[in-house]
Amino acid sequence: MLEKTLVVLPTEFGRSPEIDQYGGRTHNPFGYTSLLAGGGVTGGAVYGKSDPSGHGVADDPVSLHDFNATIAHALGVDHTKNEQPGSGGQWFFIAGKDTDPKKGQPLTKLFS
Fold this sequence. Notes:
By secondary structure, the protein is α+β, with helices and mostly antiparallel strands. The protein contains one helix and eight strands, in the order ββββββαββ. The chain has one domain. The protein has one helix at 64-75; strands spanning 6-9, 14-15, 27-28, 35-38, 49-50, 57-59, 83-85, 91-93.
């Protein structure tokens, strides 16, 4: 069943590596983890690496557009041509507008 199902566990932020004045860790939007499983994704693969302090990305950063394009790729959706109508009549661009210089690309290295 997992071969035909894509499990996506995104996060909106990580946690700072330091303990704050309240004994906890604050939000860190510059270094966090998301998970993809099944749907053709190679099991056990790791993509990217945080910097030594855990504050940011050291290798292979992934943009939101790249992440969305990768999900679309796993689902067999053409991220370059398929625009889904959003609520309120606005168009949703899966991996960014065609005019966006940072238009997302699927991380094909993650697939077997």
